[in-house]
Fold this sequence. Notes:
Number of strands: 0
Radius of gyration: 24 Å
Number of helices: 8
Amino acid sequence: MDYELYKSRSYRSIISTGFGYYFTYFRQFLKASWRWTILFSLLFAAWAMLMAVQLPAITSSIMHEELVEKVGIQTDSAQQYLMTAGGIVVLALLCLVAGVWIAVKVLKRMNLLQGEGKTDLPKGWMTIARQLIKPRNWGILFLTLLLGGMILGILASICCLPALILALTHFLSQEGALNGDPLGMPGYMTVLSAITFFLTGAVLVYLCMPMLTWLYYVYGSVISFEREKSKITNLNPQE
């Protein structure tokens, strides 16, 4: 398969080329991103633990104080809730930063794979973004992300199913405790949940990485089309 960047392609060809490019050079993508992927997975696991374990437990405790003990919200509970909510926001932002840095590393590796002697490759994602946000490029960008997003969405829903089940289990456990039932979660579930969330974060990184290759090839297709159009215009100046 031809993985040349500057070549006019349809949105279907962009998706198939991006997938082929990703799986052909998967080891290169892995080498470029594994350190930041581990960091992202750790941050994602911490974020998910706060969302799925800590926050429901604190919420259940506050509701128990209000509905059962009739004492209102205690200061300690309110502080714990605010600290947990703040931690969730901070970790989400750190996950975003790690994800952006992974994208930067991947772009550098894709440019390297195109050839060291080429000087017309995009220098950064901002270069690609400035080109793709132009209204005339919205069509191919939308179709590529729509069809590709549907494929990745199905795969992501399958891969995230264990983590979603564990999160739902923790939530239902706290809901049962609020209704007076004893907590039925064994002690190892917390460790199992953390490991599952960590692995889910890593899988999501490499599952979503083909989207970067699609944006890369959408950019290349758009630039190639503009170059061909410019050549035709120069050959027919009177038109």
